[in-house]
tRNA (cytidine/uridine-2'-O-)-methyltransferase TrmJ
Amino acid sequence: MLQHIRIVLVQTFHPGNIGAAARAMKTMGLTELVLVNPRLFPDEEATRLAAGAADVLESARVVSSLDEAVNDCVQVVGASARLRSLPLPHFDEPDAMAADVIQNAQTAPVALVFGRERSGLTNDEIRCCTHQVSIPANPDYGILNLSQAVQILAYEVHRAWRKGEASGFAYQRPLDATPPSREQFMHFQSHLGRLMQQSGFLTQPHARTEEQLQALFARAQPSRKELSLLRGLLSAFESHLPEQ
Ligand code: SAH
């Protein structure tokens, strides 16, 4: 199950942080590392700080957008020290995030996403996420080093996994409660967006309204089955629109 948990680092500036993140992952049994546009990689400094986790670096995938890194994931958790304006479901405690992630990782890939050292994640990147998590810290200085943030969240995930193993409790979720992949969710969102335009509900490009509805559906966390019901509903409405 831990192999379903992917760590995604967005546009890392210092290659040493990539190495230290790989080490943090391996100590917690995580191996899936995806790098979105790293400034320098591969790099000696990354290899040096990875120490015994060079294998995690070697198998790391480099991609050119966050979309590409998380499209197949059923849950995408953005780690951020600050609350953003987008009202995504938010985990205030990493252990609550870890319990949820471990449950989803039973059946499908999930991602934990970390931002740039200087500027974190952009709003567009947060929009790729289904959830956010913050590591509670000193209110006067609560921003952790990137690889240390990876360490803490990886530790929590490993701990939640260990607890499940030790109790012999197998997380079970009915098949039709499986969450949709991000790609399926995106198709729904664009179908909804299209229909809002065509039906005259949106008379001008009104990013805010669309965004609010997107956040609503993200919070609702529909299952795959529920999402396909919603799509069926949209198609039924669509068939009553006058020809354009
Ligand atoms: N100045 C940036 C900080 C970036 S730190 C900002 O304001 O967002 C680099 C990354 O480490 C962040 O993007 C986030 O993914 C992670 N991180 C650092 N501190 C964190 C915290 N307290 N909680 C959750 N993630 C944190």
Notes: The longest helix spans residues 146-166. The mean pLDDT is 90.
